[in-house]
Amino acid sequence: MDNEVMKFGGRLTYKEFKKFNHYHLKKIFQITFVAIWIICFLINLISMSWIPALVISLIITILAIILVRILLIFRVRNEFQSDRVLKKEVQFVVHDNGVNILIENSITQYDWNDIISFQQYKEELFLLYVSKNKAIVIPRRYFSSVQDIQLFKRLISTNLSKKNR
Q: How far apart are CA 4 and CA 147, in angstroms?
């Protein structure tokens, strides 16, 4: 298994970028929903009984979350449209030393120590987190076969586990 190298690539779509952002911010939305609801409930509880306070705070929270989601949709769309590099053809080379990302005439090298974690969103996206809020997004469609996906997962798990030793 040593010295295995694999190459794959493609162009990230807006739909995939939107899915990544949804997955990445899902937990934050859940925490925000609960926090807003509790705050609204406690504020409303001061001036009314608990049942109307519960209903009103729930309505306010749902409206606030809808507003935040709408604003987030605009932010994600604007970010995708304004980032020229994000929309370019990308080639990945995964090997024992790390991950190379080739975009036009530039190469970015991530050593395995640079990668904090690996996440898989459903069966659609693979995410290599290089910081708490930044991930290398790799759609499943970049791979030409199921065997390539299995090799990729094996290289990731082997090398990330070596890092943690």
A: 13
Euclidean distance between CA atoms 90 and 102, whole angstroms: 6
Residue 67, token pair as written in the block: 């507003």
Place of tokens 């030409």: 144
∠ CA 6-12-17, nearest 5°, is: 120
Most distant CA pair in the chain, distance = 68
pLDDT digits (tens, 9 = 90+) for 114-123: 999 999 988 8
SS3 53: helix
- Is the pTM value of this prediction over 0.70? yes
As beta bridge partners, residue 8 has 92
For residue 84, pLDDT over 80 is answered with: yes
